[in-house]
Amino acid sequence: MTKTAIVILNWNGQPMLERFLPKLISYSSGDAEVWVADNASTDSSMSYLREHHPEVRTLQFDRNWGFAEGYNRALREIEAEYYVLLNSDVEVTPHWLDPLVSFLDKHGEVAACQPKLLSVADRGAFEYAGAAGGFLDRYGYPFCRGRIFGVVERDTGQYDSPCEVLWATGACLVIRSSDFHGCGGFDGRFFAHSEEIDLCWRLRIMGRSVWCVPESKVYHVGGGTLPKGNPMKTYLNFRNNLTMLYKNLPEDELRHVMRARRWLDVLAAFQALLLHGNWGDFRAIFRARRSFKEWLPQFEADRQRIQSLRKQGEADARSPLALLWQYYVRRRKRFSQIGIRNYFN
Question: pTM for the complete prediction?
Fold first, then answer.
């Protein structure tokens, strides 16, 4: 069995493959196979791979399964000790893989890890999608070492120490195959967005841990097929975030958090409309809440199963702070300013 399989999920991503795949192949020597799983692309991605990179192993699907289910289906076909889930728009660096694999080799209690994620467009800054490791506040709002909401920090080495986190970015996620399959993989119903946070949260509930290993660094374009500001991206983010909370919150917090989120989501919708004139996001947020209510019965059994596996208290999963209060009222817009402690210990 191969030790490490690097798996890129592709959909009409030929320009990104042309730009970033050669360096990935060059910098990923050793016991690592490179795979591209294709979500029924209509461009020339697969012919490009056959002609220019026959060493890359491929899987081809008959439809676009999205990020979550696409990876589920791909990883069921790939045997390896470690999976590296890598976006096609990630530029790797020399020896990027070694610290991540070595960290998992040395720490059997760790299920998954990520590198430091920097921006291709501004190479001295963190990248929005994961920066130096992700967290959640008490109401389910994600933030990172290096990114609070839309404020992204410069990388000055302030987060260069390894750190246990709640979630690792799906742009470059290294995970034990036993943990990925053992927790049921991604929730394919999410299609895209929040699926890696949901996965990592479930792993933590089961007593496993997730880390950022910043000795490894990669550069990310970001945005993907749904750039920031796209109403569909807003819809998926809100719908999936609410669903993730319903599945994973402990019973004693579920009602309070979901009630608070109802009002906070309404506030977010009117902020998009009144402050930014964004009718698309306004409608997307209310549509997301309707969709969440409609498909909620599908997740009752999932919630019961996840709660039955709980091995850690909720203080070990989310920050007790309210991020909106820190950001908008106290004007604290950097990770180092919000006074977070390592609440996993």
Answer: 0.94
